[in-house]
Each structure stands twice: as structure tokens, then as C-alpha cells.
Amino acid sequence: MTALSRERALLLLSLITAAGAAVRFYGVAWGAPYYHFHIDEHFVFAGALAIRADFFEAANSAKFFMYSPLPMYFLIGVLETYERIAHPLNVALKHDGVIFMVLGRSISAALGTATIPLVYLIAERVSGRVSGLLGATLTAAGVLHLRDSHFFSVDISLTFFSILAWLFLMHVADSGRVRAYVYAGLAIGAAIACKYSAAFLLPLTLVAHVMAPGRPARATGWRTWAHWVAKGAIPGVVGGATFLLLDPFVWLEFNKAVAGIGELVTGPMTGEIRAIWGAQFTNIQPRAFWFTNLLWWGLGPAFELWALAGVVWLLWRRDRLALMAAAFPIVYYIVAGRTILPFARYAVPLVPALAVVAGAFSADLLRLPAWRRAGAVATAVVVAVTVLYAAAYMNVFVKPDSRLVASQYLLNRVPPGSRILIEPSHNTPPMGSYLTAPDFNIDYVLWGKDSERNDYYQLFALDTYRYLYDPRPSREEKRQYILQRVARADYIVMDDTFLQFYRHLPASEHGVVKQYYDDLFAGRLGFKLMRSFKVYPRLAGIDIDDDAAELTFRLFDHPRVFVFARETPRG
Fold first, then answer.
1. Is the pTM value of this prediction over 0.85?
2. CA separation for the pair 177, 327 (Å, rounded)
3. Could you report the per-residue pLDDT of 184-194, keeping only the tens digit for each?
């Protein structure tokens, strides 16, 4: 097999990175400025505004400790730069709200793009330039990674710094140089300052340290061993110091931080707190779900299966760099897989990690005469299927947002002043001033049992979020509440958020709401489905039906919206 020159490899890497940038930056204004559409994006944007308004008071804002603040700092820096060059932004104005969201999303798109050459450097170190290019290609086309690069949530920044830390840990394992330990620690601290779950990198530092040259022999004196142990602690110490420097809120407001992280992060993830927004995981096996759903839909079956085979291959190779390459996805899965709520975005760091593994596996097979032809065919299939899946998924960002299409449909078909029953969902189509003049500072979701808003339409809520989920009201009280709210409505507008939540909840506790949905769709409540709105990944005129994918994989960017109209007169 002809060797690939460094110059040619860098040229190809530039083209791959440019293609990766194109699919990440395309559509960053999609769905803006309706930041309610992606609830996690909502929290990061709101946190940045709170820090910018008053650094020391920010920790008192709602749900501030859900995420670490480094991505928020990035946005503040970009905002300051933009406003010096252009004009101050007023996020209460629709046009400025769009710019605000585009600036934040561009940070994710840039970090997502920058991850591609990092993958090349790691994979090239493991198995050569061909490995690097294949890994970069799979990262560029990895659907879950390119999808999340469109949103200003923390998972892409977490992934970038985690992969950067992995690159330095590869240097640790290969050379054992002190500066590699320090650089790894800095990257780890930055990763944790993006998202607390980056702490999974700490056990990975131990793997790298054990593999690094210079480990003392058993008979060596205790001073040598003490020096070796101290050296291994460098990434953890530097990482911890970096995190505390970047996130002073955790020690300035320690009690609030502990309470907030417990309530918003560890409690729901471990099952100590059972929130309705995790109901879709009620009847799954969380560990297996990563393989049967998250990676299946997030990577595509060809990429997933090839990468898993690659993990086995690298473990069989057993050399230092191969083991470090396999260690990242294994350690991440062991740590992150403990949650009972395996949301799709939790698999984002695995996209570049498994791309490295898959690229190394392919490159190794291509060097073996007996396996070269089979390896070439399999690699071509994996790359082609992954790229085509990415092209299909981009249809989501090419087509108008289904929620906004539904909003326009309502304007055209539903008279002003009509009574519309909605749910407290972030995916409810914008109506009234929320559609025409959205203010980034206003929460337009109708929270509460009896909430209403007269805004072009008469909007009132069916509280599927708190009241109907609460076990304290009796079944009859819930039934009467639903009947009373439905009796007032001319139209019912909803998306599949709560429909999917309650579908997975037990009938013994939530039978009243489940029956409501059954009756509504069966026409037994006097309403007829006027129209539903949905966008699927699509290629060459063929839709890829991803309704079986984890709910948030669909919910944030291509939910289904339903519009029902009353057929029988209101009583």
C-alpha cells in the first residue's frame, strides 16, 4: 500500500474539516430566536446573561448550577467583541435575539469543527495518517456530533476539551513528559468547567500514567514510588485548580452549588428524583440502551458496529497507544452509563472517540495483506453510510422548523380570539407576541394548573407537567380537571413531548392522562386532527423514520406538532 505523504494528508484533512464546518455552521440561525425550543440551550444562554448582568448575583438565578460556566464565558466574550464592532444587542428585540443565538451557536459550531483535526492527531498517532483521515471523516459526518454543533448547549464544548485532554494523555502514555501531564490537566479542568460529567477524564489519567514509560520496578525504593505517584497526580491537581479558577461559583456559593447540583444533576441521573422529563426511560435497560438506541441513531448502525469491533481490535493489539485509544470510550461508557436517564446528547463525546477507534481499525486492516480487500470494502461501506446519513439528517436544518410551520398554519386557519388549549411544553408553536415580537427575557411557557394568556388567541394550559403528574390529586379530580379544560377549547395544539412521556408511565398511576390522549386521538372528545407537522431526515426523496430514537434526539430539532379542531359545539 502506497504511503500517504504528510502534505497530501494535511490537504485532505483541510477538505474534511471544511466539509465538517459547512454542515455545522449551516442553519445556525434555524429556529431562532425561539430559545425555548431547546431547553438545555435555554439554560446556557440564560446563565450567560445572568453572569454578564452581575457576576456575583448570577448564582442566585434559577437552575444556575445545572451546568458549568465556561461556555457562558465564551459567549460573553463573543458578545463583547460583537458589540464593540457592531452595536449593543437588546435581546428583547426579535432581530437582536436572532443575532444573540447565532453568536452562541457559532461557538458550538466552531468547537465542533475544531474537534475534527484533534481526532486526526489522535488517530494518526495510533495507526498512521490513513487512520487520522478516516477518524476525521467519521467525526465530520457523525450525525449526533454535527446535530449538537447547531446548538449552544454544553456537550460540544465538553467534547472538544475532553478530546484535547485525550490528545495530551496520549502524549503522557507515549512519552511520560511532565509538560504533557500539565497540559492534560489544563484541558481536563476546562472540560469540567464546561460540564461536571467531564470528571470521567480523571480515571483516564490513571490509565495513561500506568502505561507511560518510567514506571518503577517493584523492588524500587519508596522515594521513587512516591515521585511516580506524585507525577501521576499532576493532571488531577492541575485540572482541579483550573476548574476552581474557571468556576469560582462552586466555592463562593458552596452550599448552593451542592444543593443545585444534587437537585438538577445527580438526583435525577441516579433516580433519587423522578422528574417527568425522564419518563421516556421508565421501561428501558439503561446500559443496553446506549447500544440499541443512542449509538444506533447517533452514529448509524455501520459506524457503531465497526467502531465496537475496533475497540476489541485495539485491546487485542495491546500496545500502549492502542490501549489508550480503546480506554477513552470504555471509561466514558463505564462512568456515563451509570445514569438511569441516557439522553442522546450524553453520547456526543463518544462520536469522536469511536471515530478514532474505527479509523485505527480500518487503517490496521488495510496494512494486512490478508485483510486488505475486506478491510477496504468494509471501510468504504462504513464511511459511505455515515456520510449519507449525515446528508439525510441535514434535511432537518434545510426544512423550516415544524413548530414555526405550525405557527404559520394557525395564523392562516385559526381565527383571532379562538380558545386554544396548550400544554406547558417548550415545543408549543409560538403564537401571538411570542411569534411576532419574542422577548428573550420572557418565559412564554404556560406553567401552572390554571394559567392563561390572552395574546391574539385565548391560550390556556392543560397542566400535564405538574398537576396531572402529581400523585396527590385523585383520579377523579384529574379527570374533572381535564374535562373542564377541554370543554373550554375550540382548538387543541400540542406536540409529542408529554404524549411520549405519559406513554411510558404506568397506567396504574397515570391512567387518566393516558386515557385522555387515547380519547383525543380517537375523536371521542369531539375534536378532529386538522394537521400534524413533522420533518424527518431525508435523502433522495426517502424519509428516515427515526420515531424509535431516544425522545430528545427528535424533540429538540424535529418534534411532531398536532393541531386539533372542535367538531362538536362547546357545551
1. yes
2. 20
3. 999 999 999 99
